[in-house]
Write a structure and sequence with these properties.
The chain has four helices and no strands. The chain has 128 residues and is mainly alpha-helical. The protein has one domain (18-127): Up-down Bundle (3 helical TM bundles of succinate and fumarate reductases), CATH 1.20.1300. It starts with 18 loop residues before the first helix and ends with a helix.
């Protein structure tokens, strides 16, 4: 069989985007974001263990605009990954397997994750 007669695998340009495809990609991306964002948590713990001067350096970064954006994104990734993982657990029990149910659950995941993220940051900004 020559190279030119081999069948080609469908690429993203052929597939029509769906809610399930987007959820799968965002679930993986949020897992990567959580892994990278956990480095900031490790930095905080190491800085706290090294003393007040070291922790002040971390606090200065965490309270900067860029630090706040990083923490906000990490919080959003945490809640999205949590909600999406809950959806996967429900799918493992045989629920939410039809396309309309899965798409409705996808919309709910985005709404709940955004609401939780904004709620937590609203409380943080209000009380601190």
């Amino acid at each position: 069989m020559s190279l030119s007669s081999r069948p080609l695998s469908p690429h993203l340009q052929i597939w029509k985007w769906s809610m399930n495809m987007a959820l799968s990609i965002f679930h993986r991306a949020s897992g990567v974001a959580l892994s990278v964002g956990s480095l900031m948590l490790v930095w905080m713990l190491v800085a706290a263990a090294n003393g007040s001067e070291s922790y002040a350096c971390f606090r200065d970064f965490a309270t900067s605009i860029f630090g706040q954006i990083c923490l906000f994104g990490w919080t959003g990734a945490l809640f999205f990954h949590l909600c999406s993982g809950t959806r996967h657990l429900l799918m493992d029990t045989g629920r939410l397997l039809t396309i309309p149910q899965a798409e409705k659950a996808g919309v709910i995941i985005f709404v709940v994750a955004a609401s939780l993220t904004l709620g937590v940051w609203g409380c943080v900004k209000f009380f601190y």
